[in-house]
Amino acid sequence: MGSITLHKVEKWFGELQVIKGVDLEIGDGEFVIFVGPSGCGKSTLLRLISGLEEASHGQVFINGEDVTSRLPSERKLSMVFQSYALYPHMSVGENMGFGLKTAGAPRAEIRQKVAEAARILKLEDYLDRKPKALSGGQRQRVAIGRAITREPVGFLFDEPLSNLDAALRVEMRFEIAKLHETLGTTMIYVTHDQVEAMTLADKIVVLDFGVIKQVGTPRDLYEKPDNLFVAQFIGSPK
Ligand code: ADP
Ligand code: MG
Question: Which family is this sequence assigned to (predicted)?
């Protein structure tokens, strides 16, 4: 289960209001994309969901439970960043199991969950290597693997592919779509790449200056944009 609800969420940094009263419903298992121009608040909204930032006003619910003041570790969500943030001195397997280890999971359980994640991500042959001996795409898979072993109720991706070259981006996009199919877990994915948004999303949330301009399927946004901003941003002929 991984439904996420935002109720009148606001975020202020001092005098600057970055998120301006956002209401949003994300259903269990949905693949939701946040798009919008640079600086519009995509990362901040994701961080408010993960708990890395606390809302100034409003509430965040996960599976109907109010988690607004809970720490990230209490929200059962896994965040995948663009800067892979792997531990260089640990092997791939150790990196993938690290979250479980710090949570005190037994070794046998860690080994089993790492093996399962490695199978899904085709990293079985790389478990003993160090991150520096991997390609960019493989490293990004390890970061995703680390998120999987924690068995989150939702994955949060913040522009995970923006450091990769174009060909690898297309390949990883396909892999993330497959991962969603395999796991069926709720995913929220931030990108400024319209193609990524249109191909991955069940639902796209278009943001501008901390306000939701429209929520809809890729087709809705393309065929029936609510306003000129969405039409221009999505690149619809209207
Ligand atoms: P996006 O991810 O869409 O590019 P962000 O959520 O990173 O946008 O940022 C939205 C706005 O909030 C920007 O104007 C940014 O400068 C500001 N901002 C983000 N984090 C902070 C912070 N910790 N302190 C002050 N301003 C911030
Ligand atoms: Mg951002």
Answer: Belongs to the ABC transporter superfamily.
Percent of the chain with pLDDT over 90: 79
User: Is 83 or 11 the better-scoring residue by pLDDT?
Assistant: 11
219 CA → ligand 1 middle, Å: 29
Q: Ligand 1: list residues with CB < 6 Å.
A: 13, 16, 18, 36, 38-44
- Look at residue 84 in the predicted model and tell me its pLDDT: 64
Instruction: Give the other-Cβ count within 10 Å of 207's Cβ.
Output: 23
pLDDT value, residue 237: 45
pLDDT at 89 over 60: yes
What is the 3-state secondary structure of 63-104?
Answer: CCEECCCCCHHHCCEEEECCCCCCCCCCCHHHHHHHHHHHCC
Under the banding of pLDDT at 50, 70 and 90, the label for residue 166 is confident
Cα angle 209, 212, 213 (rounded to 5 degrees) comes to 95
pLDDT digits (tens, 9 = 90+) for 28-40: 999 999 999 999 9
Q: Which DSSP symbol is given to 202?
A: S
Q: Any idea which ligand is nearest the CA of 36?
A: 1
**Residue 22, helix vs strand vs coil:** strand
Q: Give the residue whose CA is nearest to atom 1 of ligand 1.
A: 39
Q: Is the ipTM of this complex over 0.95?
A: yes
Q: Which ligand is nearest to the CA of 45?
A: 1
Q: From atom 27 of ligand 1, which residue's Cα is the shortest distance away?
A: 13
